[in-house]
Amino acid sequence: MTAKTIVTVNSNGRQAASLVRVAAALGYHVRAQLLTREGIVAEELESLSNVTIVEGSLEDTGLVQGLFKGAQLAFINTTPWGDEVNIGKSLADAAKKAGIVHYIYSGMPDHSIFGKGWPGLPQWSTKFTVENYIRQIDLPATFVYTGIYNNNFTSQQYPLFCMDLQPDGSFLWQAPFHRDIPLPWLDAEHDVGPAVVQIFKDGPRKWSGHRIALAFQMLSPVALCALFSKGVGRPVHYRRGPIEVKVPIPSGYREQLCGIQLLFGVHNAPYFGPDLQAPEEALELWEGFRGIEEYAREVFPVEEANNGLTWMQ
Predict the structure, then answer these.
(1) Cα pseudo-dihedral 39, 147, 285, 289, rounded to 10
(2) Helix crossing, 14-25 with 188-202: angle to 10°?
(3) 63-112 residue pLDDT tens
(4) Which of 50, 65, 88, 208 is 20 to 30 A away from residue 99, measured at CA?
(5) Backbone angles phi, psi at 77, to 5 degrees
(6) Quick one: which of 149, 137, 129 has its CA closest to 88?
(7) Strand, coil or helix: 283
(8) Region for 84 from its dihedrals, namely left if φ exceeds 0, alpha if ψ lies in -120 to 50, beta otherwise
(9) Side by side, which strands form the sheet with 217-219?
(10) CA–CA distance, 256 with 120 (Å, rounded to integer)
(11) Which own/partner pairs from 201-204 qualify as long-range (CB within 8 Å, at least 24 positions apart)?
C-alpha cells in the first residue's frame, strides 16, 4: 500500500513540527512548507526521512497552488503574522481543487458570537473566519481547538505566562485568570502529532465537520501551580492580577493580550466557549499525553537552560 502524503504549513511551529516528526516516523510522506530553511527546527525536519521541505511564503499563490498536488491529507495551522484570512482561504481553495480527502484546520473560537457580551479575541476571530470559509466550500475538514501550551511557561519576562523567579528561589505566575476556574492545557510538541495522526486514521467519516478540544488536562491556575511545583521541585505560587508587559511585543499581540484580560479576567468566559468541552475527546485520540507535572520536571528546566538561564544548577 502506497503511503499517504500529508501537507503541513508553518512547519517549524510547535503544532506542525509535532505532526511532522510523528507522521514521518510512522511512514507517511510529509510535504512541509517553511518560510525559510534556517533555524534549528527547520534543520531537524529537513533531516528526517519521508519529509520534503517546500520553502517559501504562503502569500506566493504559485507555491500554494502546487502545495497539495498529489497529497491526500493536510494539517493547516495559519498564523496572525500576515493576512491570515486570505492565506487561510487560499490554502483551503487549493486543497479543495487538489482533492484533499481530509483537511484538519487548527482553529479557535470567536467568543463574540455567543450572545453573552463577550469580546472576540483578534487572533482567534480570524481563525474562526477561516473555519467558516472552509465549511462554506464543503471541504471535508475537522477543526482542532488547542489548549494553552505547557511550553508557554518561561522565567523570562514575557507577558502572560512568565514563571517569575523570586529571590527565595520560588516561582510566581501572575495572570488575569480566575484562580479556581479550570483551563485547558496541552503539551503541543509532545501531543499534537499523535492526536492528529489518530484523527487521520479515523478519517472524515468520523470527524468531518467536527470541532475537537485538543487539551488533555483541565486545571485551574492554583491546581496547575501545585503540579508544576511537584515537577520542578520548588514552590510555585499563583497571583491573579493584570497582564504585565515588560518587554517589547508586536502591536497585534498587545491587542490580543488586552482582549484576554477582558474576556477571561473580567468575564471569566469558558476558554473554548460554552459548547466545547475537554478533555474527553482528546483522550479518546491519545492517552499518552505529557501532563504539566511531567513537563515541569523533564522539559521546563531544559528549555530554560537552552535560553541561557542557570537557576536549575
Answers:
(1) 70
(2) 60
(3) 999 999 999 999 999 999 889 999 999 999 999 999 999 999 999 999 99
(4) 50
(5) -125, 100
(6) 129
(7) helix
(8) alpha
(9) 148-149, 183-186, 217-219
(10) 9
(11) 203/102, 204/101, 204/102, 204/140, 204/141, 204/142
Cα 234 to chain centroid distance, Å, stands at 28
Nearest by Cα to 214 from 14, 4, 44:
14
Contact 269, 111 (CB under 8 A): yes
DSSP lists the bridge partners of residue 75 as 8, 104
For the stretch 244-262, pLDDT in tens is 999 999 888 999 999 999 9
d(CA 87, CA 103): 15
The secondary structure of 127-156 as a DSSP string is HHHHHHHHHHTT--EEEEEE-EEGGG-BSS
Closest CA to 201 of 64, 31, 19: 19
In the chain, the amino acid numbered 103 is Y
Kind and range of the H or E run holding 255:
helix 251-265
Inter-residue contact 11 to 36 (CB < 8 Å) = no
Counted residue by residue, the chain has a size of: 313
Q: Is the pLDDT of residue 215 over 90?
A: yes
Asked if residues 286 and 198 have their Cβ atoms less than 8 Å apart, the reply is: yes
